[in-house]
Every structure is written in C-alpha cells, then in structure tokens.
Specification:
The protein is mainly β. It folds into six domains: 6-216, Jelly Rolls, CATH 2.60.120; 219-321, Immunoglobulin-like (Sandwich); 329-344 and 351-400, Immunoglobulins (Immunoglobulin-like, Sandwich); 406-477, Sandwich (Immunoglobulin-like); 482-557, Immunoglobulin-like (Sandwich); 565-642, Immunoglobulin-like, CATH 2.60.40. It has one helix and 53 strands. Strands 14, 16, 17, 19, 20 and 21 form a six-stranded mixed sheet that branches. A hairpin with a 2-residue loop joins strand 50 and strand 51 (617-618).
Length: 644
C-alpha cells in the first residue's frame, strides 16, 4: 500500500557567490558540508545524531527513512528525475540525502552544529530546493529552517512556504534568510523539519547546497574611474590598475577594517600587502599573461582576523593577454631562381602584415617564387591577435648568385665510341649520373655511355653555395647488325616473304641480287624465284655507324604432277606410276597403301616408278592410297586408280 511521504534531498557544497535576499554583501561560505562523491549508487548512513530518521539503501525510502544517492532517476514515475544541484552545473555528480518525511512534524530530518562563528555578527543562510512532484494534485513541499543556540534556544526561524512545481521539469530555486549571532555566541545548531505531515504523495522535494556566509553592508567595487568589473591589457603594456570600493552605511560596521585580496590564475586568494583601504593601486606592468582577480574584504576591526567574520565584494577581473610570438623563419639561404617560403608562428585567427624588399603580404606564410638578387634583405612580420595584442619579428634572407657557366652541346655517338663533355665558368664541377664517365668531378670528362644518357653538371664558384646547372644529352646510335633471316623454300609459281631483321631503324636496306624480289630496298621483300638462289642483305647506318651484311638461301622446287591412275597392261601407255618434278627435291619418301594400310610400294628416291605390283605380282584393279614426304615440308596424300 502506498504511504504518504515527505521527501528531501540534501547536499551541502561550496558556493563562492550568490544572489541573496537583501542587496548587501556576503563573505566566503564558512560551511562546506558535502556528502561526497563516488561510483556506488548509495553512499551509506550519515554520522549518528545527524538525523532522527532511519537509513535505507533504496531509491524510494519509506516514511521516516532516508538514503544518500546520486539521482532520483530510479525512484518511479511520481517524481521528476534530477541530479544534485551543483552536479547539473559542473558535470560532477555527488551524493544527495533523500528523505521520506515522517508523519510527525516534530521530527527533524537533518541537524548540524556550526562552530567558531563570530559573536554579534550577521550571517546569511541559504539553500536550493526543487519540487520533485510531477502532479499539481499533490501537496507542494514546505520546510522550516531553525537556527538555535546549543541549549535549544531559537535564534531565528525561516519558513520556505509552498514550493510550486513546474510542468516542464524540475526547477531549482534558492531560499535564503539573514540572522545574527547573539553576543557571546560562537556555536549554533541548524535544524530542518517538515511543516506538515506527508501525503499520498506530498511534500516531496530535493534540498541541496546549504551555505552559511558572513553578511554585511553592500560593497560597490570597480576598476578605474568607470568602476568596471573587468579590464583587459596586452602583456608588456602599462598596467596600472586602480581598485575602488565603497561600503554602504546601512547595516555597517562600527569600526570597519579593509583588505584587498588577489587570486592569480586560480591559485587561491591572498592578501595584498599594504592594500588596507577602500582604494588601492596595483602595477601589472611586465606581469606574465593570465587572469588576475581582485576583491575587497570588509569586517569589524575587533574580529577582522577571523575570516568567518568578513564579507567580500564582487570579484574584479583583470586579464593580461599574451603577446603573439611570430618567430619568423624562412628557407634561407637560397639561390637565385628558387622559391622563398616565409613562415610566421601564430593562430589562424590573427592578422599578419609582412614587409620586405619590394614586398608586402597579408598572408601568414607567403611565398615568393623565382627569387632574384633584389629579393635579399630583411623581412618583418607584424602579428595582431583577436585580443588586439601586437608583436613583430624580423628575419634576414640571403640569396646567392650563380656563376656564369657554359656547357657543351648535346652530341650523338656510335655504340662503343666516346665523346668529351665540356663545362666552364667554375672552380668545381659535379656531373650526374657518373655512369659512363671517366671522372664525374672534372670540367671535361670523357663519356662512353652504353645507352642514350642526359648528363647534368653543377658548376660551383668559390662560395660553393649556388651552382649553375647545365645538361648535355649523349645520344648513342647502334652499330647496325644485319640478319637476313632463315632460309626459305617455295614451289615454282608461288612466293615467300623474306624474314630479315635489324637492330636499328635509321638505316638503308639493300638486297642482292635483286632478281625475283618485290623491292630490294625494304627489310622484308617478297620473293617469287623460279630457281634456287642465295641473297645478301646489306644494312648501312644513316648515322654513320657502319655497314653489316648477311646471307640467306631460297630453295625453289618444281611443281609436282601426281597421276591419279595407272594401267599396267603392257600397252606402253601409263604402264608405270611416275611423279614428274620430284627430282628437284633432295629428301623424298613415297609410299603406296591398300585400304587396309598395307605398304605395297615404298621409295626414298626422287625418281619414282611403280608398276602396280606387290612382291612381283600384279595387284588387282582397285583404288590405292599414297603419302609423299618432301624435304621436311607438309606431307602430301591422295589416291591412285589401278585399272587393267
């Protein structure tokens, strides 16, 4: 069964500045009670005596119980989901005290004793509260804060009244009030209780960031005559800072004391020696860049030494922005004709102004291509940051001249020969590549490259800083090598293309004799010889690199006539099977078969004469088959009719 609940969440943390009930000034918080932080969901029970409630490690405590956890996200859909107040601001989520209020309004859910206060001194008590309830049908939270003496005598009571909910989500609001410690009282007790019993649900809230701070008259502080809260300087500029403050007389001190304090780059507040009046002057000339914070502490002279008795002004901020450090650089020294690259260090958001010999640029890193002697000199860059701080730097650029040199013209040589390369105008020479050179470090080396090569020479004068450069190409022409190709053969009436080749193209071709050739001046003419012949190919280099010759043979065969019949009847006509033209072939093999593959006749002579017999006996009329092999050429085959 759902029980009525009054829920509180309590975290006490340090707060430096707050808006408060009255337009007067506060000191540093003197109470910094914090439930800590950690990775566990629940932090554990509080020290005995801190509360009259019972600790439970659960997301939704029962009546008269509390827990210490990090978030209400797992507490059900009756509440808004929230983190502690400071956690939602800083991103570091500490533990909170979650309290389900007792049904009795006399029970206290939190109590603490604050010691070593200043007697007869005004303080501000403050706390942040949020209504956790999602529905307006539930009773809103209402809390009473009581400041008591240690004997239970009430010094002051503050009631928050109803804390309304918001439809858009949990909204933290600050509740604060002022009280004064009685004469002779240095310790007080803070007690918190609900004003009414819990409902179903009712009075559910989160309580966070409870502070006690000294409270006093308004301090109006400023920088300079304009009483600005901030000033900005550039490092190295005149940094005389006037600190001004005035303290209102309402609620003031009988005998006030003053002390200006400084906090440099978050290192903590320290007193400025001698700055003990409402006005002071500090000199930040030459101070390093950073943030310098100032404030005035005010208190009663009698107890001014106790920081719990002081109030402080608003913080005054002086920012010293660093000067840019352009540190200009460049690729110096360089030589005439090269590219000068200037570089300035700094942010891309800064503005840049370069000046130099006949040069200006607003680029951060300008480039000057193809430099000449006139580009040598001092280059200065001025840099202005987005904060308005300006600085400059310079660099001297040295540009070296190149010696007046000359290099021999490119040349062509024949394969296996050499040539002399020549350079002048310097005292030192370096040729590259060194391949094929007699000496790569002299003015006139002998070059014997195997292939066409372009040589580069660097010519140096006495400074050896900026060489002149030249190139010489040595073209290597090949010595011709003739290859007339393989021997060829053909049958009278046919043709064959000669398969000659050459290692060089810039040549003249000549075949001899020219008989039977389609063109004796081309590398691969067509031959239609009617008789066997030997040809000579002569190749002449047009580059003057010599002549080469080679021979090849063309074998010419007679055209064969193979009879298709034989009539061995003794009439003297076709009595034998002869093959005219066979005598032009040197290698011959003729075979005659029957249809069963039996060899009936075989001859290796180029004079064939078959009389139609096999083993001395005349064969019967029939069709017989032959194969003819000629000088390793493609075999011939066919049939012959034997008729009686």
């Amino acid at each position: 069964m759902f029980k009525p609940k009054l829920i509180y969440i309590l975290t006490i943390v340090f707060i430096l500045f707050n808006n408060h009930v009255f337009s007067q000034s506060l000191g540093d918080p003197i109470v910094n009670i914090d439930f800590g932080a950690g990775t566990a969901t629940y932090a554990g029970a509080l020290v005995a005596g801190t509360t009259s409630y019972t600790y439970v490690a659960q997301a939704f405590p029962n009546d008269g119980s509390y827990t210490v956890m990090k978030s209400t996200a797992s507490s059900g859909n009756v509440w808004w989901s929230t983190l502690d107040h400071t956690g939602s601001v800083t991103g570091t989520y500490g533990y909170m005290m979650v309290v389900n209020a007792s049904l009795s309004t006399t029970d206290y859910f939190y109590k603490t004793t604050v010691s070593n206060l200043c007697p007869n001194t005004a303080y501000e008590f403050g706390a942040w509260i949020v209504n956790l309830l999602r529905s307006s049908d539930n009773s809103p939270p209402n809390i009473t804060f009581t400041i008591e003496k240690t004997d239970g005598t009430i010094i002051q009571t503050y009631n928050t009244g109803q804390i309304s909910l918001t439809s858009s989500g949990p909204t933290w609001v600050k509740k604060s009030f002022n009280f004064s410690t009685p004469v002779g009282v240095t310790d007080i007790v803070l007690r918190m209780r609900n004003n009414s019993a819990g409902g179903a649900p009712a009075n559910d809230l989160a309580l966070d960031d409870i502070t006690f701070s000294p409270y006093g008259p308004t301090i109006a502080a400023g920088l300079g005559s304009a009483s600005s809260l901030t000033q900005t300087y550039c490092q190295g500029s005149s940094g005389i800072v006037n600190l001004n403050a005035s303290v209102s007389t309402a609620g003031g001190y009988t005998t006030p004391a003053f002390q200006w304090q400084r906090n440099v780059n978050g290192a903590g507040w320290t007193d400025i020696v001698g700055a003990t009046s409402p006005t002071a002057t500090v000199d930040l000339t030459g101070a390093p860049s950073g943030t310098y914070l100032y404030r005035l502490a005010v208190g009663e002279s009698a107890n001014f030494g106790n920081t719990k008795c002081r109030i402080v002004s608003s913080v005054l901020a002086v920012t010293i922005n660093p000067l840019p450090a352009p540190s200009p650089s460049g690729n110096t020294p360089l030589c005439v004709g090269e590219t000068l690259r200037l570089v300035a260090q700094g942010a891309s958001t800064s503005t840049y102004s370069w000046t130099g010999p006949n040069f200006s640029s607003s680029l951060q890193n300008p480039v000057i291509p193809n430099v000449i002697d006139a580009n040598a000199g001092t280059y200065t860059v001025s840099v202005k940051t987005v904060d308005g701080c300006t600085s400059s730097g310079s660099i001297t650029i040295a540009i070296g001249t190149r010696p007046a040199s000359s290099v021999s013209e490119s040349v062509a040589i024949c394969e296996g020969s050499n040539t002399t390369l020549t350079a002048s105008g310097g005292v030192k020479y370096v040729w590259t590549p060194a391949t094929g050179l007699s000496d790569a470090n002299i003015a006139s080396p002998i070059a014997t490259p195997l292939v066409t090569t372009t040589y580069t020479v660097n010519v140096y004068d006495e400074s050896s800083a900026c060489p002149a450069t030249g190139t010489v190409t040595v073209t290597v022409n090949k010595v011709p090598v003739a290859n007339a190709g393989a021997d060829k053969s053909l049958v009278v009436g046919n043709s064959v293309t000669l398969s000659a080749s050459s290692n060089e193209s810039n040549v003249v071709y000549n075949w001899s004799p020219i008989d039977f050739l389609s063109d004796p001046t081309v590398l691969n003419p067509v031959c239609t010889a009617t008789k066997s012949i030997t040809y000579t190919l002569t190749i002449t280099s047009l580059n003057g690199c010599g002549v080469s010759s080679d021979d090849m043979n063309v074998k010419v065969y007679n055209k064969l006539f193979i009879p298709s019949g034989i009539t061995p009847n003794g009439d003297g006509i076709n009595d034998t099977w002869n093959i005219p033209g066979l005598d032009s072939y040197s290698k011959v093999q003729v075979r005659v078969f029957n249809r069963y593959g039996t060899i009936l006749y075989e001859s290796s002579s180029n004079k064939v004469s078959w009389d139609g017999t096999f083993k001395g006996r005349l064969l019967p009329e029939s069709v017989y088959y032959y194969t003819i092999l000629l000088d390793n050429q493609k075999p011939l085959s066919g049939w012959v009719m034997l008729k009686l």
